[in-house]
Amino acid sequence: MTADTVAHLAGLARIALTDSEVEGLTTELDSILTNIAKVSEVATDDVPATSHPIPLSNVTRVDEVADVLTLDEALSNAPATADGMFRVSSILGEEQ
């Protein structure tokens, strides 16, 4: 990784970097690429790629139809309502 490459990549990403930032990133990116190359050397076709060391599974419940609140029950404890909806104060500073 060279300073010119880092500066070129920064230009493509539209990131303004100082000369000292370019030098620092050159060292860091070179180290990262070296480590990736080391991992690539030991990766073999007989070892499947994984994202986690142990298998993961989602814990979900069955989506079952149940009794739901009526509109009046849902709005019964609201401090303010309007036209069957919760009424809240404007967060943008103007009424919509």
Mind explaining what this structure looks like?
The chain is mostly helical. It has a domain at 1-43: Histone, subunit A (Orthogonal Bundle). The chain has helices at residues 3-12, 19-42, 71-75, and strands at residues 81-82, 85-86. It has a two-stranded antiparallel sheet with strand order 1-2. Helix 1 crosses helix 2 (19-42). The two termini are 54 Å apart.
Short description:
Belongs to the GatC family. One of its GO terms (molecular function) is glutaminyl-tRNA synthase (glutamine-hydrolyzing) activity. With 96 residues, the chain is mainly alpha-helical.
Order of helices and strands: HHHEE
Uncertain spans: none
Arithmetic mean of pLDDT? 88
Structural class by SSE content: mainly alpha
Q: Proportion of β residues?
A: under 5%
End-to-end Cα distance, whole Å, is: 54 Å
- Any idea what the CATH architecture of the domain at 1-43 is? Orthogonal Bundle
- Please give the CATH class of the domain at 1-43: Mainly Alpha
Helix fraction by DSSP (H/I, runs of at least 4): 40-55%
Strand order of the largest sheet: 1-2
Rg (CA only): 28 Å
**Major beta sheet, specifics?**
2 strands, antiparallel
Number of helices: 3
Determine the CATH topology of the domain at 1-43.
Answer: Histone, subunit A
Subunit structure: Heterotrimer of A, B and C subunits.
Enzyme class: ligase
Family: Belongs to the GatC family.
Organism: Leucobacter komagatae
